[in-house]
Design goal:
Blueprint: H1 4-11, H2 18-31, H3 42-51, H4 55-64, H5 67-72, H6 74-87, H7 91-99, H8 105-129, E1 132-134, H9 135-142, H10 146-155, E2 159-161, E3 166-168, H11 182-196
Antiparallel strand pairs: 1-3, 2-3
Length: 197
């Protein structure tokens, strides 16, 4: 079984393509009737789904993994622990699951990249959902110490009130693009012309 496309994608850090590559390879190998379960990079496959925020596919993959693989490969179980936390929206638990396992060299970069992407997603979620938040809750959402979380958000323009231990969220300006196609412009011109004459 040739897993070189996965290895190459990992080497160039194309983590957003891992899930699709693994899906294609799995279909190809399964269609050829080759037994692949013992050698399949399930942890990488699961992490690929998490990286692109596809928990549903990760959950279905987890259900297809043989029990023998789950019992013999602790990294697969550790990857799924991240999935469980994502599924239940245990935001702080995601970071605990990431830090709670000594990842293999193949997985380490991908887990670190996922952690960064997940932190950015949480930051965007906080920005859209909160106007103020406590420093303690902020640290839980971002998986950081209170000091690091405060520094992170201040760098992004948020304000901190140390007396009340609250952070004020800086809302992003909503950009609205008006798309005017030529037919609408033509109708408007005809309408104005009709009104004037």
């Amino acid at each position: 079984m040739d897993l070189s496309p996965v290895t190459e994608a990992l080497a160039v850090k194309s983590f957003d393509k891992i899930a699709d590559i693994c899906d294609s390879l799995m279909l190809q190998v399964a269609s050829e009737g080759i037994s692949f379960h013992d050698d399949w990079p399930y942890a990488i496959h699961l992490l690929g789904y998490f990286y692109v925020d596809d928990c549903d596919s990760a959950r279905f993959l987890w259900k297809t993994i043989p029990t023998s693989v789950k019992e013999s490969k602790p990294e697969v179980v550790a990857a799924w622990r991240i999935g469980q936390k994502l599924w239940t929206r245990d935001y702080a638990g995601v970071y605990e699951a990431i830090r709670g396992y000594d990842w293999s060299p193949e997985s380490k970069d991908m887990v670190a990249a996922f952690s960064d992407v997940y932190t950015k997603r949480m930051f965007q979620l906080l920005m859209s959902a909160y106007s103020t938040i406590t420093i303690r809750e902020l640290a839980l959402f971002l998986g950081m110490t209170e000091e690091d979380a405060t520094t992170y958000v201040v760098e992004n323009g948020w304000t901190v009130d140390t007396a009340s231990q609250m952070v004020t969220v800086k809302k992003q300006a909503v950009k609205r693009e008006q798309k005017v196609d030529s037919s609408k412009l033509q109708r408007l011109t005809e309408y104005v012309f009709h009104l004037e004459h």
